[in-house]
Amino acid sequence: MNTHDNPALDLASALPVHTDELDLLRSRLAERAGHDGLLDVAYRTIDTPLGPLLLAATDRGLVRVAYEREEFEQVLDTIARRVSPRILRTPARLDEVARELDEYFAGHRRTFDLALDHSLSAGFRAEVHRNLPTIGYGRTASYGEVAALVGRPRAVRAVGTACATNPLPIVVPCHRVVRSDGSLGGYVGGVEAKTTLLTLEGAA
Amino acid sequence: MKQPFENAIDAHGPTVLRVCRAVLGATVDADDAWSETFVAALRAWPELPEHTNVEAWLVRVAHRKAIDVVRANRRHAVPTDELPATAPSTEGVPHDGDPDLWSAVAALPERQRLAVAYHYVGGLTHGDTAELIGGTADAVRRAAADGIRALRKTYASSATQEGKR
């Protein structure tokens, strides 16, 4: 902000505030906010073989996993509008999720054992999202098979849309849904990411 | 407010800390006032109107929290026979090698300090500052000008000393 009428002495920059001091205050604030029930959404980012991922959780569980190409700022804006704007970067709250994802990427984990908050899914899409974990590790299913699985065999396109808007990719394995001709189809994290995941699981 | 609260901390956390330190000194009291400000802000955040000037709003909250911290400390004050050490004198030659601008701000008379903190650090208009601390906008403007002149003197001399080292 440079609306201050004093070019000779820019007090804001002349009065130092150190990053580590602010970090300490921020982590104390997050702790206090959690304690007072004011922290609705905690988030952090982690590094993975697929690039950075954003993880966000509510009291009920993991609510969002996002790829960098989805643009983290926009992802947070959407969470603010649809879940709550009381969002704080609170890495510790997501340690368990980060650990399970690390294990998954290292090939040591086949299923996730995490509480999930499906607030960002609704209607038919939500039903698809809830059913995706029935496709086991290392297996794939076609969009048509998933449509049949949720009792709407003709809703193949809608299943495609549901997969493309999965708020919890990787954990809710939409990457295991492929075209009936065996080609990969699209993916929220990009086709390369889909290939990497299926290769990791030994399915490609 | 529909923006993620985290954005407000990123954008205004440092400013609010400077304001709290300018008002209360660079002490744990200032850290407490910072925390109380952001806890109160987080509580109010979802109901805050979208067009709010967030920085100015936070500075006003910080003002109230700083007063709370001062009052709480007074309540907990322990009477003693000895007078507490007072702020360094601004008369004579200021010493101790490292003339730090934070201590220069702390040494300003209260009204000058508040006028400087809320206007030059927190970005409030003199009118807004007057509403917070009382008096007229003109009086606040004079206090801010006197304060900044005193600081410029200290800052200039410290900058010169740095240059000579």
From TrEMBL, chain A:
Keywords carried by this UniProt record: Cytoplasm, DNA damage, DNA repair, Methyltransferase, Transferase
Stored Gene3D superfamilies: Methylated DNA-protein cysteine methyltransferase domain (3.30.160.70), Winged helix-like DNA-binding domain superfamily/Winged helix DNA-binding domain (1.10.10.10)
GO biological process: DNA alkylation repair; methylation
Known role: Involved in the cellular defense against the biological effects of O6-methylguanine (O6-MeG) and O4-methylthymine (O4-MeT) in DNA. Repairs the methylated nucleobase in DNA by stoichiometrically transferring the methyl group to a cysteine residue in the enzyme. This is a suicide reaction: the enzyme is irreversibly inactivated.
Species: Flexivirga oryzae
Matching SUPFAM superfamilies: Methylated DNA-protein cysteine methyltransferase domain, Methylated DNA-protein cysteine methyltransferase, C-terminal domain
EC category: transferase
Domain (Methylguanine DNA methyltransferase ribonuclease-like): residue spans on this chain: 42-117
GO MF entries: methylated-DNA-[protein]-cysteine S-methyltransferase activity
Other facts noted in the record for this chain: This enzyme catalyzes only one turnover and therefore is not strictly catalytic. According to one definition, an enzyme is a biocatalyst that acts repeatedly and over many reaction cycles.
Transmembrane regions listed in the UniProt entry: none
Main location, first listed in the record: cytoplasm
Family assignment from sequence similarity: Belongs to the MGMT family.
Residue ranges occupied by any Methylated-DNA-[protein]-cysteine S-methyltransferase DNA binding domain in the UniProt entry: 124-203
Classification via HAMAP family: OGT
Protein name: Methylated-DNA--protein-cysteine methyltransferase
From TrEMBL, chain B:
Record-linked NCBIfam families: sigma70-ECF
GO biological process: DNA-templated transcription initiation
Presence of the UniProt keyword Transcription regulation in the record: yes
Family annotation (InterPro entries): RNA_pol_sigma-70-like, RNA_pol_sigma-70_dom, RNA_pol_sigma70_r2, RNA_pol_sigma70_r4_t2, RNA_pol_sigma_r2, RNA_pol_sigma_r3/r4-like, WH-like_DNA-bd_sf
Organism from which the protein derives: Flexivirga oryzae
UniProt family annotation: Belongs to the sigma-70 factor family. ECF subfamily.
Signal peptide stretch: none
Name this protein carries in UniProt: RNA polymerase sigma factor (Sigma-70 family)
Sorted UniProt keywords: DNA-binding, Sigma factor, Transcription, Transcription regulation
RNA polymerase sigma factor 70 region 4 type domain mapped to chain residues: 101-150
The RNA polymerase sigma-70 region domain, residue ranges: 9-75
Family matches, as Pfam families: Sigma70_r2, Sigma70_r4_2
GO MF annotation list: DNA binding; sigma factor activity
Top-level taxon of the source organism: Bacteria
